[in-house]
Design a protein that fits this description.
Layout (H helix, E strand, L loop, with lengths): L1 H10 L3 H18 L4 H18 L5 H13 L1
């Protein structure tokens, strides 16, 4: 009985190891190969600022001041 169970485990072969390896690769890629979220926030902030200036909501001076503030951070 025990020998049959061991045989069943051996018959799985490389499959489970391969799935774990692929899963580890996906997790690694997701956490370490994405641009930092700060870049997205900075880009979104500049995009909003550009739209506000284009729509006339803020003056050129306000635009340049705010853009300078965003670049500092």
């Amino acid at each position: 009985m025990v020998a049959a169970e061991l045989g069943a485990c051996r018959s799985l072969g490389f499959g489970p190891f391969l799935l774990i390896l692929i899963g580890a690769g996906v997790v690694y890629y997701y956490f370490w190969h994405q641009p930092p979220r700060e870049q997205f926030r900075d880009a979104a902030s500049l995009e909003i600022l550009d739209r506000r200036y284009a729509s006339g909501e803020i003056t050129k001076e306000q635009y340049e001041e705010m853009k300078g503030d965003l670049k500092k951070h």
